[in-house]
Amino acid sequence: MNWWVCCYWHEPDAPTDPVGLVRIWALADALVSAGDDVTVFAPRYRSALVPRRSRVVPIPMLAGPVIRPISYAVLAFLSGLWRGLRKQPTVVYYRWMESLHPLLLARVFGATCICEVNGEPLPPWGAGGWRGRLTHALASFALRRCDRVVVLTEGLGHLVQTQYGVTADRVALLPSGSDVSLFYPRERNRCVQEAGLDPACEYIGFVGSFYQYQGLATLLEAFERLHARRLSVRLLMVGDGEEATALREQAAQRGLSPWITWAGRVPYAHVPLLIGAMDVCAAPFRGDRGETSPVKIFDYLACGKPVVASAIPSVAALFSQSNGVVLVEPDRAEALADAVMALLDRPEESRRLGINGRTFVEKQFGWEAIVRGLRDLAEQMVPHQQSQRRVLINNAGEKA
Predict the structure, then answer these.
(1) CA distances (Å), 210 to each of 14, 125, 215, 238, 278, in order?
(2) What b/e sequence results for 235-254 when a residue is b if at least 16 CB atoms lie within 10 Å of its CB, and e otherwise?
(3) What is the SS3 assignment for 147?
(4) Three-class DSSP category at 198
(5) Where are the beta strands (DSSP E) in 118-216?
(6) How confident is the model at residue 12 (pLDDT cuts 50, 70, 90)?
(7) Nearest 5 degrees, angle CA 208-CA 209-CA 212?
(8) What count of other Cβ atoms lies within 10 Å of the Cβ of residue 71?
(9) Comparing C-alpha atoms, which of 46, 101, 92 is closest to residue 72?
(10) Which domains does the chain show, CATH number per domain?
(11) For the segment 192-233, what is each residue's pLDDT rounded down to a tens digit?
């Protein structure tokens, strides 16, 4: 099959290379490994310019919060038209964005159109005003007209049906996952040494973008409680984002700065090393996070680490202590600190959880398994749609 993958992502504080495209690159590479032809229409960030197994079309964008997505959509559409004249796509797959151009390209070339919804199209904090109403209208129009809507959680599946009018037969659940060939268990002491950390300390870690919904203020409060009870505990923060300055100020006010390592943004290939240095990994999502695909938890588990995570619906639906994740009530620093301390006090239990988590991800949530499900879904639709087109062409010929 010939796949076109369209994706737009922008982080205002990281305009050179936003981390939100990581899943797209992994998906494209896995499709190529399965024998398909893949072209990715991606914003012209640094990650779109490095050599990849898939064919990448870097789309330039104009600066400015309004013109940036518009320029991407227009230029991606024109690029798709030009390329489609030479070789038409079989499937147009796109991650939800406030643009109809992937759906239009699919209709122009008679391709199957699949939209991936990896978070609420209109999250709670963006629901007000004219922008929210416009986004809702666009999402309702587009999602109802796609051949399939792929959702990463059951909650998202329910949401697109109830709020955007997508019929149940057009919704397919395809969870996120991890690259198990890159994220795998490593010897902890060696990781600590290579990362330049103190081998005498125990590290609680977080990997991700520093946004409010991540619950990092609660994590700092929990760390304060942990450090007061166990002086060897340190906090390793990997990532950056709009909350970085506020978090550093909060840490300084609490007198925690000497015991926190702010690693900043690191190359994706370097992330497993830092996870390998962690004793316990945290995913402290806020209770008002809404529906999300907890990619970081899959990566933590793939590295064989025990995880303490907020029991928001999209997390609780997938994870439990049986597969390596201890769930705690969101926004409660004391509960988070107690759960982490319990794992530090019981290293054998922590190792058992890490082993179970790795097995869980390896069997069900590696990219090979995810792409197998996506290709099966596409193959079920493509022959049917091609036969429909043949009928229409034959009917047109008979009438002529």
Answers:
(1) 11, 16, 9, 9, 18
(2) bbbbbbbebbeebbebbeee
(3) coil
(4) coil
(5) 148-151, 171-173, 202-207
(6) low
(7) 120
(8) 17
(9) 101
(10) 2-177+368-398 (3.40.50.2000), 188-364 (3.40.50.2000)
(11) 999 999 999 999 999 998 999 999 999 999 999 999 999 999
What spatial distance separates the first Cα and last Cα of the chain, rounded to whole Å? 32
Q: Give the Cα separation of 211 and 221 in Å (integer).
A: 16
194 vs 183, 185, 199, 382, CA distance in Å?
16, 15, 11, 48
Burial class (CB in 10 A: 0-12, 13-18, 19+), 60: exposed
What H or E segment, with its residue span, contains residue 42? strand 37-43
* Of 354, 209, 195, the residue nearest 272 (C-alpha): 195
Calpha distance 128→332 (Å, rounded): 28
Measured distance CA(138)–CA(143) in Å, rounded: 8
Separation of alpha carbons 68 and 78, rounded Å: 16
CA torsion sign for 292, 294, 296, 299 is negative
Average pLDDT over residues 234-261: 95
Residue pair 327/311 in contact by the 8 Å Cβ criterion = yes
CA separation for the pair 166, 148 (Å, rounded): 9
The values of phi and psi at residue 336, to 5°, are -65, -45
User: What pTM was computed for the model?
Assistant: 0.85
**SS3 per-residue string spanning 204-223:** EEEECCCCHHHCHHHHHHHH
Phi, psi of 65 (to 5 degrees): -65, -30
The whole-angstrom separation of Cα 134 and Cα 340 is 43
pLDDT digits (tens, 9 = 90+) for 103-145: 999 999 999 999 999 888 876 655 567 778 888 899 999 999 9
| Distance, CA of 154 to CA of 162 (rounded, Å) | 13
d(CA 298, CA 315): 11
Strands (E), the chain: 2-6, 37-43, 55-59, 91-95, 112-117, 148-151, 171-173, 202-207, 233-238, 260-264, 280-283, 307-310, 325-328
Give the residue among 362, 358, 350 at the shortest CA–CA distance from 326: 350
Nearest-5° Cα angle at 352, 350 to 357? 95
> What is the distance between the alpha carbons of residues 173 and 197, in angstroms, rounded to a whole number?
40
Tell me if 293 sits within 8 A of 176, measured CB to CB: yes
- Distance from C-alpha of 47 to C-alpha of 171, rounded to nearest angstrom: 30
